[in-house]
Amino acid sequence: MAKDLTTTVGSLTFPNPVLTASGTAGHGAELASYVDLSSLGAVVVKSLKAGPWAGNPAPRVHQVAGGMINSVGLQGPGVEAWLEHELPDLLAAGARVVASIWGNSVEDYEAAATMLADAPAGVVAVEVNLSCPNTHAGRAMFAHDPVATEEAMAATAGCRRPRWAKLSPNVTELVPIAEAARRGGAEAVTLVNTVMGMAVDPATRSYRLGSGSKGGGVSGAAIHPVAVRAVHDVHVALPDLPIVGVGGVGDGETAAELLLVGASAVQVGTATFLDPRAPSRVLDGLERWLAAQPETAVRDVIGAVHD
Fold it and tell me: If you average pLDDT over residues 106-129, what whole number do you get?
């Protein structure tokens, strides 16, 4: 018997819980040659600032055990250029789109969100990236402080769409940050962004990334247990707050693990760099996993480890 993969994240319903992760699927339809974008729950695009942003100096990416470390620095064309040049092809591919925005200030977040107010209906939500460690602010992330988190989220109401707060694992207490995001208007939280790290070349005694002493963000399989713990603990403390789980999802089982601890959907990120078909593989694997379970619908396994 076919199982029901439909899931909800706040006020939104998706045909399945597998999404792409911001920063790993491009700004538009780059993955369309490898993946039927309409078959995924949604495509989350690379984070956009209100205006163009050059990002960090090269080198920007370095492979590490169990994943990668990056310091791309959120390079992007800006919201206006994205709406004009990138979004049309993405919508033509049948994708449900989650825009992602970021800023260096509360005013930046407000500006980017307001520019999305009149975006086409295919842009179903806005993920507010409060937690990238690769900007010139270094470790001074909004998502490291409840007050800053709430202020930035509140400033994004002008997008007139459901908002998800993408939070950082680089804090000692994540639950108060998630609570602050909800007070600021977040319908859901995305857990987690990259883990702060650094790589040095012993042969040259130099930093491996162009960001130098600021380091970068570690992603991939190595951070999966961190994501599982974050989703687990926030779900226990805030069971009515929807969670999108991300971090080291590379197959059906790692996706299922995040669902079982409380995520309503998952995002596939770093695995896509190794194989651009990864989101489809994860979806297929999740379907096979669910077929072997007693539950008839994916929504019935969400948070099941707590039962």
Answer: 97
Domain count, the chain: 1
Cβ–Cβ < 8 Å for 194, 159: no
Categorize the per-residue pLDDT at 140 as very low, low, confident or very high, splitting at 50, 70 and 90: confident
Pairing of strands 7-9, 12-14: antiparallel
Contact 9, 304 (CB under 8 A): no
- Among residues 95, 132, 186, 234, which one is catalytic? 132
CATH of the domain at 16: 3.20.20.70
Query: What average pLDDT does the structure give for the chain?
Result: 96
244-266: average pLDDT: 98
- Domain that includes residue 276, residue range: 7-55+73-196+218-306
Judge whether 69 and 199 are in contact, CB under 8 Å. yes
**Is 83 a member of any domain?**
yes
Q: Is the pLDDT of residue 133 over 70?
A: no
- Here the tokens at position 194 are 């990259």
pLDDT in tens, 173-197: 999 999 999 999 999 999 999 999 9
Supply 58's token pair: 């090269």
State the Cα angle at 189 between 186 and 191, rounded to 5°: 160
Count helices and strands in the chain by DSSP H and E runs = 9, 16
132 flagged as catalytic? yes
